[in-house]
Amino acid sequence: MDDEDGYFGERVAASYDDLSDDMFSPALVDTVADVLAGLAGGGRALELGIGTGRIALPLARRGVPVHGIDLSRAMVARLRAKPGGDDIGVTIGDFATTQVEGTFRLAYLVFNTIMNLTTQEAQVACFRNVAAHLEPGGCFVIEVGIPELRMLPPGQNVVPFHVSPTRWAFDIYDVATQATSSNYITVDGGRGEYRSIPFRYVWPSELDLMAQLAGMRLRDRWEGWTRRPFTSESRQHVSVWAKP
Question: How many CA atoms lie within 13 A of 138 on its CB side?
Fold first, then answer.
């Protein structure tokens, strides 16, 4: 782990913007930005884990003033290097506890970033921190996957999600603690590299309770950004909690 930038130091930041990855699909990015712009309603938006600006930049181009929080200076440097990146304010710090000036109409955490907080205590603190930054009627949005526990037969705790001649990737689950990690093995030119990033998976109902503890209530839950209904077969959800 890079001590200053957490698990998203220079080595990760340098290759993070892989435009061939589905998360960078222009159609998806536009849909996410459109939904968030609608929820912001002309007000300010706070992105937790702003990273390289995948969502913040297109949201700002829609006229939404965006401020970000991120621990990784390396990731934020990539944001700054992009057109419009210098116009977005960023505070360096842990988004579970870092405070910024002013209030916001919208706060959001996308692409499983809530799981970067590896304890329940930190996730609860994040909800309370967001509630303190939201204006009355403001919304908190989280996009996160559903843990793939249904894929685990008895006695197994590993779920592979990529296998190729030069790269293997798999998640490891501890169902007793909700600890998980994404693990990557790469072989290039006969040399191997192993990388592991810890997470804490969290269930929709648990997130709802965290929101209640922070004084917010669930407003919407969708299967994804197209707002299809969330069902027992959904593999992810986009949830919206509102502050009274």
Answer: 21
Residue type, 142: I
Q: How far apart are CA 1 and CA 12, in angstroms?
A: 11
Is 46 exposed, middle or buried (CB count within 10 Å of its CB: 0-12, 13-18, 19+)?
buried
Contact by Cβ (8 Å): 240, 220: yes
81's tokens: 């290097």
Band (pLDDT 50/70/90 cuts) for residue 11 is: confident
pTM, to two decimals: 0.95
CA–CA distance, 63 with 58 (Å, rounded to integer): 9
Tokens describing residue 136: 């009355």
User: Can you name the residues that pair with 220 across neighbouring β-strands?
Assistant: 240
pLDDT in tens, 203-237: 999 999 999 999 999 999 999 999 999 999 999 99
SS (H, E, C) 143-183: EEECCCHHHCCCCCCEEEEEECCCEEEEEEEECCCCEEEEE
SS3 state at 71: coil
Sheet order of strands, 167-174 included = 158-163, 167-174, 179-188, 191-200
Here the tokens at position 91 are 């505070």
CA-closest candidate to residue 92, choices 74, 110, 118:
74
Distance CA 203, CA 65 (A): 31
Give the model confidence (pLDDT) of 101-160 as tens digits. 999 999 999 999 999 999 999 999 999 999 999 999 999 999 999 998 999 999 999 999
Angle 200-26-91 (CA atoms, 0-180°, nearest 5)? Answer: 50
